[in-house]
Amino acid sequence: MVTIVVGTQGKLQLPVINSTEDVRRALSQMGTISSEQLLAVEVLWTPQASGDTLTSEDMVAEYPNLKLV
Predict the structure, then answer these.
(1) Distance between CA 1 and CA 63 in Å, rounded?
(2) 9 CB-near residues (< 8 Å, 6+ apart)
(3) Residues 69 and 23: beta-carbon distance below 8 Å
(4) pLDDT digit string (tens) for 3-12?
(5) pLDDT average, residue stretch 24-34
(6) Within a 13 Å sphere around the CA of 23, how many CA atoms are in the beta-carbon half?
(7) Residue partners of 10: CB distance under 8 A and separation at least 6
(8) Residue from 36, 35, 14 nearest 25 by CA
(9) In the chain, where are the structural domains located?
(10) SS3 40
(11) In Å, how far are 1, 10, 36, 55, 57 from 44, measured between CA atoms?
(12) 22 beta partners
């Protein structure tokens, strides 16, 4: 599981994510943010420890609104 948090000045309209193409489009859109507008970027990995894994049951329990793309 990867979460990307982006802080910008102004409004960033990302597409609703329903497919891998939507993910690509959103990442591409984030890549066009100018350095003047970009305040922060943080990438969060779950699980964080090397060798740790999440089972399918863990994923459903921790992220019930997760969509498979």
Answers:
(1) 10
(2) 36, 37, 39
(3) yes
(4) 999 999 988 8
(5) 94
(6) 9
(7) 37
(8) 14
(9) 2-62
(10) strand
(11) 8, 23, 23, 18, 20
(12) none
In the DSSP assignment, the letter for residue 46 is S
> Position 30: which residue type?
M
Range list of H helices, the chain: 20-31, 56-62
DSSP 55: -
Three-state secondary-structure class, residue 3: strand
Residue found under tokens 């090397």: 50
Q: What percent of the chain has pLDDT over 70?
A: 100
* pTM reported for the whole predicted model: 0.74
Please check whether residue 39 is in contact with residue 9, taking contact to mean a CB–CB distance below 8 angstroms. yes
Angle at 19 between CA 16 and CA 25, to 5 degrees: 65
